[in-house]
Amino acid sequence: MSFSQDVKKEISLDIPEARHCRTALLAGITLMTADISFSCGGEDRIAFHSENEAVIRICFTLLRKTIRISADVQVRWGKIPVYRLLLKGRAASEVLSMLKIRPGDRKLDSLLYERSCCRRNLIRGAFLSGGSVSDPKGSYHMEFVCDSGEKAEDLRSIIGSFNIESRIAGRKRSYVVYLKEGDDIVTMLNIMEAPAALMEMENARIYKDMRNNVNRRVNCETANIKKTVSAAVRQVNDIEFILEKKGFGFLDDALREMAEVRLQYPDAALKELGNFLNPPVGKSGVNHRLRKLSRIADDLRRNLYDQENS
Predict the structure, then answer these.
(1) Please, which residues have CB within 8 angstroms of residue 307's CB and are 6 or more apart in sequence?
(2) In the chain, how many domains are there?
């Protein structure tokens, strides 16, 4: 089972006690997954359909508990079964009246989500029927797929009431409300009352942060090692060039000792090199002497170049 399915399963197990919250939850599901048709003089119809059995099961429970309506659940078997709950006639009209849905409506009635608790449940319903969230072990992404721009704007506004910034993008014939920030997705899981999923995501975030910190430290240490090795190779080359062209008698005692120690210990760090000197010298003193040797080697190279090209 995917992380997204785990979240939906956890959400579907909690049915609100208050009637207004149950209505908001059903409105969120209807917003995303229901096909509604009004008939002049005939029967109104509402068809809830989903590949997720939990969505249809919670619809059935909400209808029975809120307005005491029962409906048959149908299953269309295939590679992926599709569950369908159909209401028609008086039952459909009662639900449409309760959800304040009228012919031509493309937006939700704001009376359905005046209370903060109702907004939470509407978001829960929208996620159950048209939402998904990526596995937190990978990238962070949560989205809600709406069939109209008006519904997407409604949902974005409701999410924004909890100080969460979401965006809307077009996708074929749908409009997707999405979030990309880990902190926002954690907040959304809290809003939807999915504590187990929230804990799993927080654990994954902690693990990723630790892994990233370790990777950064390893990369930094690797870069420092490469830098140290490169500098040591350059220093040895400079000293060997001085030895070849002038000999160590060309250097004063301090530089000659430094050159001999560096050739003897080509892989040693500056602090170690300082301990091999007599008397010992600090890291900055060693660096100063090695820089001086490099400048001498550069001067010899320039003089040799000038002589060869004069």
Answers:
(1) none
(2) 2
